[in-house]
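Changelog note: in this version the structure field was regenerated for every chain. One regenerated record is shown below for reference.
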Amino acid sequence: MMQNDVESDLGWALRRISTAFRTSADDAVGVIPGHGRGYLVLLAIDGGAEPSQAEIAHLLRLTRTMTTYLLDDLEQHGLVQRRASTQDRRVRHVLPTRKGRALLRTTRAALRETEERLFSPLTGEESETLRALLARVAAHTSSGGD
């Protein structure tokens, strides 16, 4: 089959890949309050660093207000807890609960299956290279949101 201009367009390819990923990933993250954003919060706080609400907002490129509402929802569902900083009482650090960690583990496993299906035309090395390149480009974008 001959590749036409549309099929070689970067925007077309990114849109098509994004749509395929989101369609499958929505099932996995749909059980988390805030869906994809809630998943990213759980992922961001899983490493033990105890980021502040402001740091999470900055990392995920969300407004502080949106982050507060998202964390309220995650906290109401028992997935995160917030603690006041010992250095500055105005700062709230966010930590995952056991329930939050367990949900993150199952969600990550489901998302790995989605990624494996999506990257099935690639070798393992090609898949890792693509992930690394996409992460590098994403880190240098200036605007967040979807």
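Spot check on this record: Helices lie at 10-29, 35-45, 53-60, 64-76, 98-118, 124-139. The radius of gyration is 18 Å.
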